[in-house]
Specification:
Alpha-lytic protease prodomain-like, Alpha-Beta Plaits, three-stranded mixed β-sheet, Cation_efflux, 8 helices, mainly alpha, about 300 residues
């Protein structure tokens, strides 16, 4: 028990460190992009600046969330605090969708103004802006990989969701570079709001996936079949006296999995032998998935439900 607690504390610190690194990178990019927005008036630059600002806020929030989610179960939270990460991921997805809609509306208005003969002042003449966004794209790619590796390693929905945000940021950085370049060489300012509209749609679409995943976890949606099959195979290999596994149910809460199922054992076994097998199953499965396991034993003389 002490070993698992130490691992949990270590994982919490790693997750917090990953979120902090992401927040620092996002803050740097947000300041640079906001400066460029005031210099250029470009909507696609504004979209990218909004995305980086939200990434910074989300990463700072995640730093607290991943710590809270890994607290031990207590009297008020007997199943732990893992769902805090799913709630955070749901909030992040909703926030990004809101920003994407706002930029999309502004893009449509600007396209309408241009088509009606109004002049839109956008300054894309400074090539240093393009160089900055190329640099920003590499920073976003680094942070995406950093968060994805740590999120998968620690099984953290909040970090994985954050990685998706920075993946979107990488795309908006590339699109910003493209918009700045095209407008600079063609002089067609309408390309800026058109590209901003297209990529705001991409951001909204990507965030809908995060919202769906978060809602599924909060609604106790069944775990993926591949993970379920792995868990069942682990149980089968635990002891050769296990005759059958049935009524297998599982759900995910934050970084933890919760399993409950029945196993059929020979009715000739003594009570202490059954207890040993059940205890072994719970230990092996909970160690493999950092989860909570409840196993019910049925004698072989009783048909599975």
């Amino acid at each position: 028990m002490l070993h698992r607690l130490t691992d949990g504390l270590s994982n919490s610190k790693i997750a917090q460190r990953a979120a902090l690194v992401a927040a620092i990178c996002a803050a740097f990019l947000a300041v640079g992009k906001l400066t460029l927005f005031f210099m250029t008036g470009s909507l696609i630059v504004a979209l990218s600046a909004w995305d980086s600002t939200m990434d910074m806020i989300v990463s700072l929030v995640n730093r607290k969330i991943v710590k809270f989610a890994r607290l031990d179960a207590d009297h008020n939270h007997p199943y732990g605090h893992g769902r805090a990460e799913s709630i955070a991921a749901l909030g992040q997805g909703s926030l990004i969708i809101g920003g994407g809609i706002a930029i999309a509306v502004s893009s449509v208005r600007q396209i309408y103004d241009v088509l009606n003969g109004q002049t839109v002042l956008i300054n894309h003449s400074d090539w240093k802006q393009i160089v900055f966004f190329i640099f920003a794209a590499f920073v976003s790619l680094f942070v995406t990989k950093w968060l994805k590796v740590n999120g998968l390693k620690l099984n953290s929905p909040a970090l994985i969701a954050d990685a998706e945000h920075y993946k979107v940021d990488f795309v908006t950085n590339i699109s910003s570079t493209l918009a700045l370049f095209l407008v600079a060489i063609t002089g067609y300012t309408i390309l800026d709001p058109i590209l901003a509209l297209l990529f705001s749609g991409y951001i909204i679409y990507g965030s809908l996936g995060l919202v769906k995943t978060s809602i599924n976890e909060l609604m106790d949606h069944d775990i993926p079949d591949d993970i379920k099959l792995i868990a069942i195979e682990i149980v089968k290999k635990t002891d050769e006296r296990i005759l059958d596994i049935h009524r297998f149910r599982a759900r995910k809460s934050g970084h933890k999995y919760f399993f409950d199922f029945h196993v059929t054992l020979p009715e000739s076994l003594l009570f202490n032998e059954v207890h040993y097998i059940i205890d072994k199953i719970e230990h092996v499965l909970s160690s493999e998935f950092e989860g909570d396991v409840i196993v019910h034993a049925d004698p072989s003389s009783v048909s599975p439900d």
